[in-house]
Amino acid sequence: MQAIAEGARAATLPQVGGHVVLQRERSTENGLFPKPLGGAIVNTGTVQLSAGWELDFFGRNQAALDAALTATQAAQADAQTARVLLSTHVARAYFNLARVNDQLGVAQRTLAQRQEALRLVQGRVRAGLDSQLELRQAEGALPQQIGR
After folding, report:
1. How many domains does the chain have?
2. β-pair partners for 23
3. 125 and 85 within one domain
4. Are 75 and 10 within one domain?
5. Domain check: are 78 and 8 in the same one?
6. Residues 31-51 pLDDT 10s
7. What is the pLDDT of residues 58-110, one digit of tens each?
8. Which of 38, 58, 89, 102 registers the highest number of CB atoms within 10 A of its CB?
9. Distances (CA, A) of 106 to 6, 37, 95, 103, 140
10. What is the DSSP secondary structure assignment for residue 31, as one 8-state letter?
């Protein structure tokens, strides 16, 4: 977009150009012309300069420049919006990850507590202090995926 704006700005300024052609030519010694023309080296050069400036009576070039600058500013605003949106999504993803990690930690601690409770109930059942009902309740507190 910046290049378009610069191109539109260039149309409002004077234009200067130049063209240079340098040529070196050696004619054959055995040709139509005898020496000193035959076998001679001839150097030629051409220089062209041009200048121009378009008078903007009706404001066409200025309007094109204004449109290009507006489009450039809009593109810059879009890019800034994209940067803000990207950083917002990154921050949201980071906090979601932290929340999920915290939930995982809670779930792991809960599982460890329930496994310890099951171990204690199993010991009490072996000692005859608890019944199979308490054992089944302690086993029911564990997620079913643990046994698999």
Report:
1. 2
2. 44
3. no
4. yes
5. yes
6. 777 777 777 888 899 999 888
7. 877 778 888 888 988 999 999 999 999 999 999 999 999 999 999 999 999 99
8. 38
9. 59, 102, 17, 5, 19
10. S
Q: Residue 119: which pLDDT band, with cuts at 50, 70 and 90?
A: very high
User: What CA–CA distance (Å, rounded) separates 118 from 82?
Assistant: 53
Amino acid at 136: R
How far apart, in Å, are the Cα atoms of 119 and each of 124, 133, 140, 147?
9, 15, 13, 14
137: exposed, middle or buried (Cβ count in 10 Å: 0-12, 13-18, 19+): middle
- Domain region containing 138: 97-142
Q: E strands of the chain, at which residues? A: 15-26, 41-52
Tell me, yes or no, whether 52 and 102 share the same domain. Answer: no
